[in-house]
Design a protein that fits this description.
The protein is of the alpha+beta class and 330 residues long. The protein has helices at 19-26, 74-92, 98-112, 141-154, 169-179, 214-221, 254-257, 267-292, 299-308, and strands at residues 7-10, 40-45, 55-57, 60-71, 117-128, 133-136, 161-162, 186-196, 203-206, 224-233, 237-242, 247-252. It has 3 domains: 7-72 and 116-162, no CATH class; 74-114, no CATH class; 169-308, no CATH class. The strands form 2 sheets. Strands 1, 2, 3, 4, 5, 6 and 7 form a 7-stranded antiparallel β-sheet that branches. The protein has a 5-stranded antiparallel β-sheet with strand order 9-8-10-11-12. Strand 10 (224-233) and strand 11 form a beta hairpin.
Length: 330
Amino acid sequence: MWFKNLQIYRLPTNWDMSAERLEEQLAKKPFHPCGSQDMESRGWLSPLNNDVLVHAVGGQWLVSLGFEHRLLPSAVVKQEADERAEEMAEQQGYKLGRKQMKELREQVTQELLPRAFTRRRRMFAWIDPVNGWLVIDAASQSKAEDVLEHLRHTLDSFPLTLLRTELSPMSAMADWLAGGEAPAGFTIDQDCELRSIAEDKAAVRYVRHTLEGDEVKGHLEAGKLPTRLALTFDDRISFVLTEKLEIKRLDFLDVVRDQIDGEKEDAEALFNAEFALMTGELAHLLPAVVQALGGEIAAELVGRKAETVPAAPVPSSPASVPVTTDDPPF
């Protein structure tokens, strides 16, 4: 049980919720496989594949949202519908109109759905009710929104807010690179991506490349800003911080993983040990990241600050990206 990516959100530390109440509310929307005419199904699953939907260890909660999708490509439906349309055109002497083709595609979809293969996946969310963290193991905010949306539809009360910091990650990472020094407790690793905010959207990506010296500073002076930067915290956790305050490529180093007894034969005991260790490490990492970004903005001040301080421009993806090494992008 090790998260790979972190989408970070805030819950009030006085949130009126217990593990037992959360269990009761999640049980209202459990996961069920797709019906014969369903393209997708989603619902809450037990993290340990037992009857418990809220897995609690040491005051930390883990929940899991399950998804099932039917694999019915639109190209398959179109091909079948086109073939039937040709046969019907030969029989009746004229081609089908637009409305008839739409109805035919809908008919083909209904016929093929029960025979389509299904694919299942799940996403995990960690809830720290003491310190007010909700963290989803998702590669993007859009994927994490699937979990958040289902929580909103499931819970009676869900007072969630975005994590906001005084400094934007982009400006903070630029300061660290320009000064050649990371904030206390962190070290700068050898992966970085810089993008221009100008119209040309030029970008450069470093992979396993030293970030010291005048080369990176020259890019900063030319108007490129960091959108990704690899860091290590306390010699225990390595990760990539993004301009959206996402944590990606999260890796707990051997000094952390070696604390777990590798001889545990009980799968549940191993799962619990990994979850407890992971949440304990993240409980130190997240406040340190917030502190490195100038501290957290209180929820009631976010709207007021947004009115007075313009948001930092986020460069869009460039058409082409020069890479400094032959390694694949991270």
